[in-house]
Amino acid sequence: FQYLKRFDQGCNLDKFCYEAHSVEGSPAECLQQFLLHCGITDPSWSELRNFTWFLNVQLRDCEASVFCNPDFVQDTLQGF
């Protein structure tokens, strides 16, 4: 949710990193973001769950990768 919210606001996500247990927005805002970005017109709960699970895994892996760390790659992958 935090990544999607910042993406919609046009923020630079290169330096953003999720902080565990941090809470932003309401459950309704979270659901709205997932519905906007999941790519399915009328998703079921299981489709939303799969979308959020996949997105979470990908973002967690990206945050853990040294190749996606802006301090390591500096400006060589701007916007990647």
From TrEMBL:
Q: Name one GO molecular function term.
A: ligase activity
InterPro entries per record: RNF213
The encoding gene? Rnf213_2
Stated name of the protein: RN213 ligase
GO CC term, one of those recorded = nucleolus
Biological processes, Gene Ontology terms: negative regulation of non-canonical Wnt signaling pathway; sprouting angiogenesis; ubiquitin-dependent protein catabolic process
Q: Which organism is it from?
A: Chordeiles acutipennis (Lesser nighthawk)
UniProt xrefs under PANTHER family: E3 UBIQUITIN-PROTEIN LIGASE RNF213, RZ-TYPE DOMAIN-CONTAINING PROTEIN
Record keywords, A-Z: Ligase
Q: Does the keyword Ubl conjugation apply?
A: no
Superkingdom field: Eukaryota
